[in-house]
């Protein structure tokens, strides 16, 4: 049982790309479970520490702490024997898989109704807006593995009575890029947001090289989604049209779509982050194609 500051590990989730993730609890209090994420930055052969990688991870942690509403909380962080770590809330499925968009929509191929779909997208955008307003930067590494839900969304087809009893999942972002050069993170987030929307709709990643295809409106409709709205929004985010929205403008579009559907419960980030009175929403990132 490894220890990280005030926390002791209970089990290890699958390691990936120089990162280890543990289910843990506070060593001195209760059975509530948390997650410890450790960036391993020690060469196995030489034992040398990659101080640059450690510093980047610690910087990333500080950015996440300042992200605002919709960002996974950092309960503790520091340097470990193998590198650096932070402790956050546990967002996991019943079988202790990370409850992120990759697990839910790519691995388990979840299909949700239009309201749930819109609510998740709105939660992602609201969290991004929170960081943009507070720090004038974006996530920069907005991928399915870094977008967590604190409850599993109800799949399409569940009886309405059962759906009403279920708590609407909240969106939590994690692991922003440590550096931001010339506002690149904000521009990259627009493309990444389109990719997340596409993944949730079709249970497969958007091909980002060569000619990017968003499929036809009818394909979206066959999956149960408003193809005219979502396909058009993705095209704008990807820079395929003459209009590339700011995050503020994208948020307005998604909220208007939610209003059309009848709304639903807002995420914590949405409740904390009102849409700005102006449609401008700050500087418009430079337009460009898919990165």
Radius of gyration: 19 Å
Uncertain regions: pLDDT < 50 for 5+ in a row? 277-291
Strand content: 5-15%
Shape: globular
**Can you count the helices?**
9
What integer is the average pLDDT? 87
Explain the overall architecture.
The chain has 291 residues and is an alpha+beta fold. It has a six-stranded antiparallel beta sheet, with helices on one face. A two-stranded antiparallel ribbon has the order 7-8. The longest helix is centred in the middle third of the chain and has 22 residues. The N and C termini lie far apart (42 Å).
List the helices and strands and how they pair.
Blueprint: E1 3-4, E2 7-12, E3 19-26, E4 33-40, H1 51-65, E5 76-79, E6 83-89, H2 101-107, H3 114-135, E7 147-149, H4 160-165, E8 171-173, H5 184-202, H6 217-222, H7 227-237, H8 247-261, H9 268-272
Antiparallel strand pairs: 1-2, 2-3, 3-4, 4-6, 5-6, 7-8
Helix pairs in contact: 2-5, 3-5, 3-8, 5-7
What can be said about this structure in brief?
The chain has 291 residues and is α+β, with helices and mostly antiparallel strands. The protein has 9 helices and 8 strands.
Supply database-style keywords.
single chain, alpha+beta
């Amino acid at each position: 049982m490894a220890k990280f500051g005030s926390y002791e590990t209970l089990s290890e989730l699958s390691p990936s790309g120089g990162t280890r993730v543990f289910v843990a609890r506070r060593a001195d209090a209760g059975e509530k479970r948390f997650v410890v994420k450790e960036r391993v930055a020690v060469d196995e052969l030489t034992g040398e520490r990659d101080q640059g990688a450690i510093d980047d991870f610690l910087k990333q942690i500080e950015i996440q702490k300042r992200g605002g509403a919709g960002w996974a909380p950092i309960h503790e962080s520091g340097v470990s024997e193998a590198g650096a770590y932070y402790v956050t809330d546990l967002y996991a499925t019943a079988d202790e898989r990370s409850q992120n968009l990759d697990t839910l929509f790519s691995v388990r191929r979840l299909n949700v109704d239009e309201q749930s779909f819109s609510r998740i997208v709105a939660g992602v955008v609201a969290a991004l807006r929170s960081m943009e307003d507070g720090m004038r930067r974006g996530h920069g590494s907005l991928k399915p593995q870094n977008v967590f839900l604190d409850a599993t969304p109800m799949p399409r087809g569940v009886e309405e009575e059962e759906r009403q009893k279920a708590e609407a999942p909240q969106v939590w972002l994690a692991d922003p890029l440590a550096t931001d050069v010339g506002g690149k993170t904000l521009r990259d987030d627009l493309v990444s947001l389109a990719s997340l929307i596409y993944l949730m709709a079709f249970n497969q990643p958007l091909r980002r090289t060569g000619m990017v295809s968003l499929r036809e409106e009818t394909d979206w409709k066959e999956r149960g989604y408003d193809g005219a709205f979502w396909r058009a929004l993705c095209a704008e985010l990807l820079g395929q049209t003459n209009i590339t929205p700011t995050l503020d403008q994208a948020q307005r579009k998604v909220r208007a779509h939610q209003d059309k559907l009848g709304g639903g419960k807002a995420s914590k980030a949405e409740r904390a982050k009102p849409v700005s009175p102006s449609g401008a929403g700050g500087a418009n990132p430079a337009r460009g194609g898919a990165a």
